[in-house]
Write a structure and sequence with these properties.
about 200 residues; alpha+beta; 4-stranded antiparallel sheet; 6 helices; about 20% strand; disordered N terminus
Length: about 200
């Protein structure tokens, strides 16, 4: 299995008593009832040592990555009035500790990982996290997320949408039911980088 940083793939939350956990096995994940706590950020803040600011930056950075990726309207056959965006949801975070942790993110694993399956991704992230030597310095984060593509009016398009354009927008968003999965890598200062090897400054 190739390391996740070598792969490019299209974009459950696990909770136990309204808390995210990184200790479930894949079997437990599949059998755990997914519920929601009072707020999304409260859920994520319950991950040990994860500050809510990291979650907020992760979501904003993931959204920007998605919008940048779809910015070429010709490639994605988008009309002038439309833009593609998303509302990313963080599903797992791996805290990378030391140079040893960077190597952990690059290593092969002895089990199959389906990067289009949420439980499989979380199982993989849990495995990576469990390999980290937390006595080493924290270098950054690998943030896994899922997202659903959403069409909205381009903020640079100043005309009012016609009825047919509005109907097209509504229909697309109604049919956008399959999530994409992807990841971003953030330094400990919450700057995005392209590879975990760049976490060492």
């Amino acid at each position: 299995m190739l390391a996740f940083i070598q792969m490019e793939w299209s974009a459950k939350r696990l909770m136990d008593k309204n808390r995210f956990i990184f200790t479930s096995t894949l079997e437990q994940e599949e059998n755990t009832e997914i519920t929601k706590s009072n707020t999304y950020y409260e859920q994520m803040a319950s991950i040990e040592n994860i500050d809510p600011t990291i979650i907020q930056v992760g979501i904003a950075t993931a959204r920007q990555k998605i919008e940048d990726h779809h910015s070429d309207k010709f490639t994605y056959a988008l009309p002038e009035w439309a833009m593609l965006t998303a509302d990313p949801e963080i599903i797992a975070i791996v805290q990378v500790h030391g140079a040893e942790g960077i190597q952990v993110t690059k290593q092969k694993v002895d089990f199959k990982v389906d990067f289009k399956n949420e439980s499989s991704i979380i199982h993989y992230a849990t495995h990576l996290q469990n390999q980290m030597n937390t006595r080493l310095s924290l270098l950054g984060y690998v943030v896994f997320y899922k997202s659903y593509s959403v069409v909205q009016q381009d903020p640079y398009y100043h005309s009012t949408l016609t009825d047919s354009e509005s109907a097209e927008l509504t229909q697309f968003n109604k049919e956008s039911t399959n999530p994409d999965f992807s990841f971003i890598i953030l330094t400990k200062d919450l700057q995005r980088v392209e590879a975990t090897s760049q976490l060492i400054s």
